[in-house]
Structure formats: structure tokens, C-alpha cells
Amino acid sequence: SVISSDQIWTAANSPYVLTANAVISQGATVRVSPGVHIRTTGKHKIVVEGAFEASGTKDSVIRIDTATFEFTNKAKGYDFNSRSGSHFSYCHYTGSGLNTIYTITLSPISMLISNCRFENVYYTIYGMNANTDTCLLRIEKSVFLGGSSMGYAAYIFGSYAFLEMDECLVSGMYGLFFGNYATLTRNRFEYWRSNSGMRITTGSHNRGRIIISCNEFFDFKTHILEISGTPNTFPIIINHNTFDS
Asked: Is the torsion defined by CA of 84, 184, 116, 147 positive or negative?
């Protein structure tokens, strides 16, 4: 279906069941209220060219089962100044565990993920492709729990993609993949399931800054940090962390 005008999804009309792919047209906004349940009958996705605002609460989370989201470069990303635009807040997502599934796919737009919980997913937040645009992905106070296929909490491409991750738990997964700009603070990473918990692939320019500070790392197999790509001159700062294998 095509959603071409603003909609509010309410708990009273829940669950919202996807039986096919859906598109939120450019200029349209879907606002999801606390207590809503979204699920799908198959490998269906919501393609967002407008805005998708999922705003649950601590006492009334939004539940999402297996439905995936694809934000195109037409979508309205999150504006951190006005605190408006596409975001996920107090959402509890349960995936199928398949390693071909991208839970939230982002073209070069900014996004806020706050107080969310992701279980049994593979590519939780994937993409960006931000080689010319500047975009920010901020993940805060969220939990990522690996399932049958382990997976990644964030898998981000693009030389100009900014990743901020604060007060999160990543447990039983393959870890993180990101580029030139990242700030990771006050997180707990545990039970890595691959040889490298964080992989940094630097882009072709020498601009960037990576800060890994005040995190806890437990039970890793070999490398916590692996850096590859174009040689760079920007700083990578690692301080005040706990490492315990």
C-alpha cells in the first residue's frame, strides 16, 4: 500500500499487520503511538520517503515483530535541533534472526534510536552511504541482544557518517562496523561472537575523529578494535575503558 497523507497509528487499532510492502510517500508522516504492535506476515518492509515517528514510553512500548524499515534519501531524517523527524523511541523489536535481513536501513539521513531493545536481528541499523552528505546516527540507552545469527548493532558505510552511541548494551553479537567519525561512551560490550568486536574502515579523506571512552568490554575472542582502509592522520582516542576477557 501507499500512504500518501499523515496518519496516526493508535493502540486501540493495533495490531497493524503488514501483508505486503508499504510506502510512506514524501511529505507524509506516520506517527506511532505508545502501545502499538506492528507485525508482518512475511518478509515485508515499510519504505519511508516521508517521515516515520515511533514514540513509545517506558510504561507502554511499541512492539515490532520482523517488519523492517528502509529510509530513502527522500525521507525526513531526525533534526537534533528541533527534536523532530523520523526516530524510534521506546520500541521493542524482535527479528527473525536471518542474516539477510536489514532491520533499519538508512540512506544519508540522520536518525535517533533511543531507549529501544533489539533481539534476534542481524543488520540492526545498516547503511548510510554518506560519502558526500553529513548525517548523524545517535543511539542512546538501547539494548542489542544477539540471536541465532549473532549480527551487528550498527553496520555503517560512508566517510561522512557520524555515529554516536551512549549508555547502550551490546551482548552476544558480532559488534560494530563504522567509518571515520564515531563517539562511543559509557557502553557495555560483552560476549563478542567474532574475531573483531569493532571494525573501522576509514575513507579516502583524512578528516575524522574517533573517541572510545568509558566503555566496558567483556569476554572477547581476539581483537576489540580492528582498523583498515585508507591510511589516515585523524585521531583515534581510547581512554578510561575496562577490558576484561
From this structure: positive
35: alpha, beta or left? (left if phi > 0; alpha if psi -120 to 50)? left
> For 157-204, what is each residue's pLDDT tens digit?
776 788 999 999 999 988 898 888 899 999 999 988 776 688 888 776
In sequence order, the β-bridge partners of residue 165 are 139, 184
Q: What is the DSSP string of 53-76?
A: EEE-BTTBPEEEES-EEEE-TTS-
C-alpha to C-alpha distance for 131 and 179, rounded to whole angstroms: 10
The alpha carbon dihedral of 95, 165, 237, 217 has a sign of negative
Cα separation, 56 vs 63, in Å, equals 9
Give pLDDT tens digits for 104-139.
Answer: 999 889 999 999 999 999 999 998 665 666 789 999
Q: What DSSP assignment string belongs to 8-29?
A: EE-GGGPPEEESS-EEE-TT-E
